[in-house]
């Protein structure tokens, strides 16, 4: 999950151009390390939605600290990151699933999904257990129909 998320952000930087391959490799490794450390005590495979908000990577007029830390290691400023990455990005890194949304009203797209051990489907403990659900429920604009899209690499 962490590798998929870090690779996705790295691909966004690569697509924007202006960052060398060695810098991108270092960025990806630094981001993976920062995410592993940050998520160490907030990873619950038996209850994948637990801690979802803590693991949510967000760019929304502020740079996510994990992305900012990894970019700083390769000499990219927050200002440069805002030029290279989408201004509105949400990336959910959960056990068994990584998904993202670009823009506030964009579709939620699944980057990675794997079955849970034992073949059990995730049980939703309550209606507002994940960062994604908080976003959907807390909308102030009229609800819209959102399509899920699976992206494979």
TrEMBL record:
Signal peptide range: none
GO cellular component, one term: cytoplasm
Gene3D superfamilies tied to this protein: Anti-proliferative protein, N-terminal domain
UniProt source species: Urocynchramus pylzowi
Name of this chain's protein: BTG1 protein
Domain Anti-proliferative protein, first and last residues per copy: 85-104
Pfam families membership: BTG (PF07742)
Family matches, as InterPro entries: Anti_prolifrtn, BTG, BTG-like_sf
